[in-house]
Amino acid sequence: SLNPSIGIDSQNNVHIAWNEDYSRIFHAKLDVNGQILTFPHMLVDAGFLSYFSYPVLAVDSFNNLHVFVASTYSTNYPVMTYYLFNTTWSGSSFYLGPNTYRVGGYDLVTDSKNNVHTLWSKVENPYNQMELYYAKLNRTGSLLIPSTRLTFDLGFSEASTLAVSPQGAQIHVVWQDDRDGNYEIYYKTKKRLNLK
Q1: pLDDT tens-digit profile of 114-154?
Q2: For residue range 87-98, what is the model confidence (pLDDT) as tens digits?
C-alpha cells in the first residue's frame, strides 16, 4: 500500500485513497473516531498495461469523492486523469492534459460551490521545460475552465499546491522553480482565473 491521500466529507467522515501495486486505487471511509465505515475496496483498476502515480482526493459537500491522478497507459505517455465517484462508487474518467513525457506534482481542492480546482505540471518541450497547468470542473465532472498554462519561464515549475477562496473566485498557487539556476518558492494569485 502506497501514497495515501485524505479528505473529510460534510458529516465529518474521513475518506482515504491510496495505491496498490501502482495499478489500482483503493478507498476506505472512517468515522470521526477512526472506526471503519466502509472497508477498503478498489475504485479503479488500471490493468497490467497501466500505471498510476499517487492519487490526490477531495470530497465535496454532496459527499462525492473526486480523485486526480497521473496515469500511464500502454503508450508509455503519462496523462492527467480525473475521476468522480458518487455514492455508488461508479466512476468515469477523462483526460485533463495531452500526452506528455513527464508529469510532476499535482493538487486538487473543492470550493463551497462544489467546483473542483486542479493543478499539475508537465514537461512542455524537448528541453525538459516543466510548466504548471490549471483546470476547473463542476461537481459532476464537466469542465468549466479547460487546461490553462500558468507559467512560461525556462526551467522546472513543479511540486505545486493550491488553495481556493470559499466561493472559488480567488486561487492561490505555490510551487518550486529553478528558473534562476536554483530552486526557489514562487507564488501566484489571480482573481476569477484571469490567468494570463
Answers
A1: 999 998 888 766 666 888 889 888 888 888 888 888 888 88
A2: 555 556 666 665
What is d(CA 83, CA 93) in angstroms, rounded to the nearest whole number? 5
pLDDT for res 69: 82
Q: What does the DSSP 8-state code read for residue 156?
A: B
C-alpha–C-alpha distance, residues 140 and 116, integer Å: 9
The model carries a pTM of 0.85
Asked if 15 and 29 touch (Cβ cutoff 8 Å), the reply is yes
Report the alpha-carbon distance of residue 190 to residue 54 in Å, rounded: 27
Instruction: Tell me the three state secondary structure of residue 90.
Output: coil
**Which residue from 176, 105, 111 is spatially nearest to 145, judged by alpha carbons?**
111
Q: Please tell me the distance from the alpha carbon of residue 194 to that of residue 134, in angstroms, as a whole number.
A: 12
Count the helices and strands in the chain (H runs, E runs).
Answer: 0, 16
Q: Exposed/middle/buried for 34, CB within 10 Å: 0-12, 13-18, 19+? A: exposed
Three cell numbers, residue 163: 488553495
The DSSP secondary structure of 35-68, one letter per residue, reads -EEEEEEEEEE--TT-EE---EEEE-TT--EEEE
> Using 50, 70 and 90 to split pLDDT, how confident is the model at 196?
very low
pLDDT at 77: 60
